[in-house]
Structure formats: structure tokens, C-alpha cells
Amino acid sequence: MDTRRSRPSVARGSHEKFLDLTARSGSLGGIEPATGSAWDICTAEHADYGHLTEVSVFRAKAAGSQQGRFRRECRLYEYLNLTSLLILTAVGAYVLAFLFRSQIYIRLLVVLGSVCYCAYYLTVGSEPLWDAFLGTALIALASFQGMVRLWLSRIPAILNSADRPVWRLMGDIEPGLFRQLSRAGKRIEIETTTILTQEGAAPDALWFLIEGELRLDRRRQPSARLQGSGFVGEIAWLNCGSASATVIAEPGAKLIRWHVPTLRRTLRKNHRLELALEALIAHDMARKLANSSPIQIVADDGQATIPKAVT
Fold it and tell me: Are 198 and 179 in contact (CB under 8 A)?
């Protein structure tokens, strides 16, 4: 029997299996099924069954690899959908908010994260999650309101024309905090000679001189004249004790007066204002100390001595 006559029949049976396999592989992985031209090449006169098997296995492996890559891309697309991006953005904004010290940046990031959470609650299910949406919306509104207040507090335009010169005299304080501090006090123009603080007695008010002249009297020391702007009674305010000198305001002097108990209650409700006032008093005391001459050292017996230069 001629073996050359039997090979085509074997090859043609394998051809049917090969076409069936490649057709299924092509439908799954994007590979075109075998064509007649490809069969003519693979089933040449000297083709055998083993060669066709190798070609079929190669095409099946190629189809399987493309099918696996297609499934991985589908899984990645399903993972990076709209709801996932909203959650990632919201969590990222909240995490970044903990890394900033500026209250404006913190509140801005909280608002951004809350908006993303609100959008997520509206799109995550077949029906919106209204309870979670309303709660997160309230958080966003509160943060936005605080951010706007902090931003406006730093703009000098919120001060009227009468307060701006006093704000510049007082020093480094936010315009919004200065306005709150000014509202807690009362502006006074001295018409007759008035004692502001009495040495050895606890004053009931903290003063700030806007313009005019003050006279300072201390025991065993000559009187001194004070001009310009600055706080009066700040030592007693910080120590919660008695005044270290007697300060007398001359007629025509303009001052701001804060009632001590009322001011302390106001500061307990506003920690930022308390820190700002302490910083102003510290800056004013440093300026007074730098301009004082001569420097005196008080001994244990209360006698003031002038230090001698070391040669």
C-alpha cells in the first residue's frame, strides 16, 4: 500500500480539528481562524500529523495569552470606575488635610473630600444614600463656612477707615482678630487728668494708648513722660496682680479701655484672639525694654542700682 496516499486523509482529518480549534480560539482571543491558504501551506505534500499538532498548540497558547490579557484589562477597568475614583480622591484629600498646618488649606481639602463622598453616595447604588449624603454635606458646609471666615479675617478691607490707623499702630495682628479685640473694648478720650493704674493696686482695666501723653510715677524714681502708642497695665494683666507703676493720662489722650473680667471671658471663648493679644503685649514690652535707658537692676532689698561697665 502506498503510504503517500494515506497522509492526505490523516492530514484532512487533522485539518477539521485544526479549523475547529482555531475558530474557537479566534472567537475568544481575537485570532482569525485558519484559512484555506494557511491550510495549503501547512498541508503540503510532506506535512504530517505531528506538525499540525504543534501549529494547533501554538495557536491555542497565543489565544489563551490574549484572552488572559483581555480579562486583566477588564478587571482593571472594573476597578478604576467612577465610584472607585471618587473614593480614592476623597480619602486622598482627607489624608493631605492632616499634613497641613494652615487652617484654610485644611478646610479646603475637607470640603473637596466631602464633595467627592457626596457624589459617591449619589451614584454607588441603584438609589442614592440620602442619610450619608446629608451628613457629609453638612460637614462640607461647616468647613466651607470656616474657611471663608478665616480668609476674610486676613483681608484689611473688612476694617473701616477709623480702625485702620489703630490697627497699624497695634502691630502684627490679623484684621479680623483686631476687629474682635476692638469690639471687646471701648474708646475713650481723656478730658481731665485721669489715673489709669495705681502702683501696688490691681487695675480693673487694660489700656492701649492711641495718641497723647502719659505720666509714669514710681517710688524712689523720677517721673517719666510717655508718648506714642502702647499698652498700659500689661504687667498686671499678665501676672494677674498689682500694677508696677502709677500711670496718669493727660487731657487730650485717646485710649482703648478693656474691662479685665469681660476681656478674660472673651478670650476664653476665642483661643486665637488670646494668642494674638499675648503676642502684641510681648512685642510691646520688648520695644519698651529696648528703648528704656538706663537699665536698672532691682536688688532683693528693693533698691535700684545702675550696673557698672566692666573694663
Answer: no
